[in-house]
Write a structure and sequence with these properties.
Blueprint lengths: L2 H8 L4 H7 L8 E5 L14 E7 L5 E8 L2 E5 L6 E3 L1 H10 L10
Amino acid sequence: MSCTELTAKYAPALLHLAEQLDAFDAVIPSWAAGPVPDAESNPGGTEPHILLELFEDRGIEAIVMIYGEESCFVHTRHAAPYPITFQGLINYLKQLPQPIYAFMD
């Protein structure tokens, strides 16, 4: 499922943000949206959210929790969570190198 499809199902209030993220499918290894009803755990809590898994420089995994345009947080194993705006996240994704398949006709 695309980020938009997952978000439409589990966090429809954030659909306008998910639609912008679909353009970066080639550089986002995985994503989720929630909360998922009846799930054993909801890592983003009970508030509607989009979760992205990214790999930063030096192979550090980063989980980005998106709750709104001004409410996004980056989590890594090596630092306390820190805020980023949705536009800041988009700017970061824009500068990532894309794999060759991202340029297919």
